[in-house]
Write a structure and sequence with these properties.
- It is a single chain.
- Helices cover 57% and strands 11% of the residues.
- The protein is α+β, with helices and mostly antiparallel strands.
- The chain has a domain of 141 residues: 2-Layer Sandwich (60s Ribosomal Protein L30, Chain: A), CATH 3.30.1330.60.
- Strands 1-2-5-3-4 form a five-stranded mixed beta sheet.
- Helix 4 links the parallel strand 3 and strand 4.
- The longest helix has 89 residues.
- The termini are far apart.
């Protein structure tokens, strides 16, 4: 055996140590590569799950939108049918001069000039108005039994002078309440369906520049709301 110096033996020992460490490093590398592959596979699985979930939510959203569109269409068709039935019945009972029907974004609107129901500056329903409402009430109970009903009072822009009301707001609200009380107390409508709103002079349908225009603005509107409608938008 060739004689080796102490330094050679030390260097050979260091070499063996480095080889051992290199082997350990290679093993660690392979282990890390294995972990990396697992992480990549897990990430891929999570991405697939997320893609499936997004697809599911997108499909559910589309189905919900389709259902909402169908419900809205069905609701509109129901209101159209209600308009036809009410128009036929009220035309027979009241005639075109007393009631005007329109289907709007708010719902089915029955408009009456306030002179049918009230004397000037008053909120007590006249006999003629009571007779008119008594003819409207059965249609509200029988034709649209599940629909909410808003009674809206409107005035012209003439300021209150001698009637005792503080403003046209109070007058219009008092008139709307009078109609609601009549429909509930005298005609048996469910009070949970009804609401009273006073708009005063602030939602005119005509410019208030002639007596006839002011006459059109002094009105009471009975609004038959869609059954799923949550908010009432003011009149035009």
């Amino acid at each position: 055996m060739k004689w080796k110096s102490v330094r050679e033996r030390e260097m050979e020992a260091e070499l063996e140590q480095l080889k051992g460490r290199l082997a350990e490093g290679e093993n660690a590398k392979q282990s890390l590569l294995g972990q990396l592959d697992k992480l990549r596979a897990e990430i891929g699985r999570l991405q697939d799950e997320r893609a499936r979930e997004i697809k599911r939510l997108t499909e559910e959203k589309a189905l919900a939108a389709q259902r909402a569109a169908r419900e809205k269409e069905e609701e509109a068709n129901e209101l159209l049918e209600a308009q036809k039935r009410l128009a036929e019945e009220l035309k027979k009972e009241l005639g075109d001069a007393r009631a005007k029907l329109n289907l709007t974004e708010r719902g089915l609107v029955i408009t009456f000039l306030d002179e049918i129901f009230f004397d000037s500056g008053k909120a007590m329903i006249k006999p003629e108005g009571a007779e008119t409402l008594a003819k409207v009430a059965p249609a509200l109970k029988e034709n649209v039994p599940d629909s909410p009903v808003a009674v809206e009072g409107h005035t012209d822009n003439e300021p209150i002078k001698v009637s005792g009301w503080r403003s046209n707001w109070e007058l219009s609200t008092g008139r709307a309440l009078a109609v609601v009380h009549f429909l509930v107390d005298q005609q048996g409508l469910d009070p949970k369906r009804l609401r009273a709103v006073g708009y005063g002079e602030f939602h005119p349908v005509a410019p208030n520049d002639t007596p006839e225009a002011k006459r059109q603005n002094r009105r009471v509107e009975i609004v038959i709301l869609p059954a799923v409608l949550k908010k009432v938008k003011p009149g035009p």
